[in-house]
Amino acid sequence: NLLHTLSVFDNKDDIASFVKGKVKALIAEETSSRLAEQEEEPEKFREALVKFEARFNFPEAEKLVTYYSCCCWKGRVPRQGWLYLSINHLCFYSFFLGKELKLVVPWVDIQKLERTSNVFLTDTIRITTQNKERDFSMFLNLDEVFKIMEQLADVTLRRLLDNEVFDLDPDLQEPSQITKRDLEARAQ
């Protein structure tokens, strides 16, 4: 994009100075847009938290870690809605064409958590409990969602086994203090 503009300059120092200025401007613009996103994020999270609390009516101790827009498949029918990942539960809520779908699955009940694909869908997260299998898809970032789910399931398992065998990370001993950012940092 800069090549046709660079022909205007007479010497290499002016060209270098111009290009450096453009690059610095791009970096500054990117940084300010990221800061703006971070400022918007708490508001969106607060909104999601209010909806989560209203829809699922958990006690205050149940902390929402993060949420995602996705589809939950009921047979061959996709139900567009919101997946809420909390400290102790995986929850899904959808209201479409007058029909409400509300799922609450405790992490302790999940026997298998896997990425799958089938004839209809590629990249699906399948949750298996003793009674059912549920498929979730259409995530903006499936890798992120799956990693967070794995970590929350792992934290739950560690808390269950803590008294017998494992020493739990001090950071994970108080589940109300776990955040999405903590889980992402731990994964890194």
Automatic annotation (TrEMBL):
Protein known as: TBC1 domain family, member 8
Pfam families named in the record: GRAM
Q: What CDD domains does the record point to?
A: PH-GRAM1_TBC1D8
Q: Where is the signal peptide?
A: none
The GRAM domain, residue ranges: 50-117
Protein origin, superkingdom: Eukaryota
